[in-house]
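Working notes for the structural subgroup meeting. M.R. asked for a predicted model of this chain before we commit to crystallization trials. I am recording the input and output together here so anyone reviewing the notebook later can reproduce the run.

Input as submitted:
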Amino acid sequence: VARRITAEGAHAGQGIGAEDYAGFMLHARALVDGRPYGDIGYLYSHYNPGHGPRLMPPGVPLVLAGLWAVVGEHEWSTKLAMYALSVAFFLIAGLYFVRDDPWLAVGVTLLVGLAPIVVRSSPLVQSDLPFCLCVWLVLWLADRPGAWTWGRVAGITAAGTAAILFRLVGVVLVPALLFVSLWRWKELRWKGLTAPLIWLGTLAAGVFVVGVPRLLRRPEWVNAADIIHALARNNVVYRMAIGDGDGHRARRHTVA
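Returned structure, recorded in token form:
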């Protein structure tokens, strides 16, 4: 499996439809340079809020920033990190089924590892496969036979936190684990509630610290001419189309 994905993706680029990689890499570069996480030069307009978020989830940027801080920013090191996370996902997916049937575990590993879309995605700077790794790790730890220990609880909490950092949709683990904990309350007690309560508390603190000030802030109305003049003052060559708000192009400006 590792040989197949390496042969397929060793010389592959990020792909036209994989635009998220730019945000991840810019965030990682900002962290390595000691700049604020959001200092990536992204031009955001509230006139089109659906055109990309201001900030990408920090999971992939944190991985890349740690790697680049040690070995530098290189294509080979970046791809190697994404390959490692992908192969780890294949192994965890298979390991989950080992106790049921070893051959089933081998089949699952081959299925997820040799699927064409997965093979093409393995070297890309994307959060999909790392997110899957963390989710499957939570499932594997939670469903292992035997009583839950505090070590297992710590592992579940860490893996679930990483899943949320890679992709915000990981918050579905909160109600899922809450349900399991309440369903198996006599067996798990507070050990089952520890991880979801930590996740809920962290998310609530994040919303309070980041979200509330944004809700109280007065909206900033930016004039397109101000943007053009600011670009001109910095000797930036940039071409933009100014629309009428409904997606129709009104006029084109070139600033040099």
